[in-house]
Amino acid sequence: MTAQKGRNMLLKIGTAASGVTVAGLTATALKLDNEMVDVTTKDSAGWRTLLQQAGVQSITLTANGRADDAASFATLQGYAQAGSINAMGMVYLNGDTLDCNFQVTSFEVAGDYNKEQTFSVTLESSGPPTFNNA
Questions:
Q1: I want to staple 93 with a disulfide (CB 3.0 to 4.6 A). Which of 8, 48, 53, 103 is the partner?
Q2: Given phi > 0 = left and psi -120 to 50 = alpha, else beta, which region is 24?
Q3: Chain segment 53-110, per-residue pLDDT in tens
Q4: Under DSSP, is residue 7 helix (H, G, I), strand (E, B) or coil?
């Protein structure tokens, strides 16, 4: 796999194919978690044994950027205030996409003296995602 430009990893409100790109982002990240289920017994000879595909899976999306006047910033802020679960998508430079429902679990806006206003957002998945390879 060749190197890819991070600036082309886009967060979208709605689906990856037809959603609105969140404007002003400077960084995005995706984390896939697989909760483990420990089934170790005395017969395990002192080694931990895990039950395959038994735990809860989840996705965390994080992003930060400049708080501009774009409608997408206001939409994210509204989702955070409502605590609602909404469709979000992620698009990668190579054309791969991720679509899932997410809840905004953290939304922070900051403004340092003599600098632009910034924000950071954390989204947690609700339900199964759809991954599409290009």
A1: 8
A2: left
A3: 899 999 999 999 987 767 888 899 999 999 999 999 999 888 899 999 999 999 999 9
A4: helix
